Amino acid sequence: MTRQPVQKLALLAAFALLLPACKGEEPPAEEKKVDKQPPPPPPDNTPATPQFDLSGPKPPETSAVVFAVDGALLPLACFNKDKNQIVPGKECGGMVAEGSEVYMESSFGNKALDKTGAGTKASLCGDSGAIPTPQLDGGAAYDWAVWPKSLGLEFKQMHPDTWSDRGARLEDAEAKAIQDAIAKIRNVQGDFLPKQKATVDIDGDGKDELFVSAILGNPADPDTYLFSGLFMAPGGDLGKVQLIDRSKKGADVIRLRGVVDIDGDGKRELWTSVTFDGGNGDRIVQMSGAEPKPIGSWTCGAG
């Protein structure tokens, strides 16, 4: 045997001795442990709700104004502390000095504090006496506003779902009670259709009032209504349904937009809205007496 084959055999033998050692350095496959981490939670893209300081005096310790927002602050009604009464919006503008802090909110949850600007301007629908603010001048959109800002804690806005097709559905007993109430006002045959169903406690007794906006469609003219109005069942009692407001035109719909205690007497006033061909108007209805009392006329020439 030559020297070169002997060297090759020695190298092969040494390599063979190393193979078991290399394999032994790895643990058996069944003994391997894989750390399984839970998947990360999905990102929360919900915008943070802004927090505002809404502290301060409230009626009846101070005067207060409720506004509809239509490109500017359009006064609907106010509590005049000196007169100790709620007065129409046209008497309210002078109460709010330039630079006063107001709280604004929309039905989609947008909220803001802003300060009133100088003078007055016309609202988008042409009503005079509206008050500008920097944010509204910049194109911001809100539904309502109050001064002082502390009155924002007393405001409850109805969710838009209440006047959706699904949200406005009535129980059989509710539908019958409203139709009976309509028949007492105008006994005509039409297509009954609820347009809103909302519940909210306005007198502080712990029982929600039921509000229903409903129409009677005209079978002879689908573009007009034989009746359109907003009703309330106090405490949800269908035996005591009363008319809150009624449309005087054939194609208008009245709905409840919100409630707020303007004068601090423990009873919330109603912010109602009428939708007509080409626009909508707003006003406040006071419920402290036996009968609903509209405060002033509709904005935007409605009603």
SSE layout and pairing:
Elements: H1 3-24, E1 64-69, E2 73-80, E3 85-88, E4 101-105, E5 111-115, H2 134-137, E6 144-147, E7 155-157, H3 172-185, E8 191-200, E9 209-218, E10 221-233, E11 242-246, E12 253-260, E13 269-276, E14 279-286, E15 293-295
Antiparallel strand pairs: 1-2, 1-6, 2-3, 4-5, 4-6, 7-12, 8-9, 9-10, 10-11, 12-13, 13-14, 14-15
Task: Outline the structure in words.
- The chain has 303 residues and is an alpha+beta fold.
- It has helices at 3-24, 134-137, 172-185; strands at 64-69, 73-80, 85-88, 101-105, 111-115, 144-147, 155-157, 191-200, 209-218, 221-233, 242-246, 253-260, 269-276, 279-286, 293-295.
- The protein is built from three helices and 15 strands.
- The strands form three sheets. A six-stranded antiparallel beta sheet has the order 3-2-1-6-4-5. A five-stranded antiparallel beta sheet has the order 7-12-13-14-15, with no helix packed on it. A four-stranded antiparallel beta sheet has the order 8-9-10-11, covered by helices on one side.
- The radius of gyration is 34 Å and the shape is globular.
- The chain starts with a helix and ends in an 8-residue tail after the last strand.
- 35% of the residues are buried.
- The model is unreliable at 8-24 (pLDDT under 50).
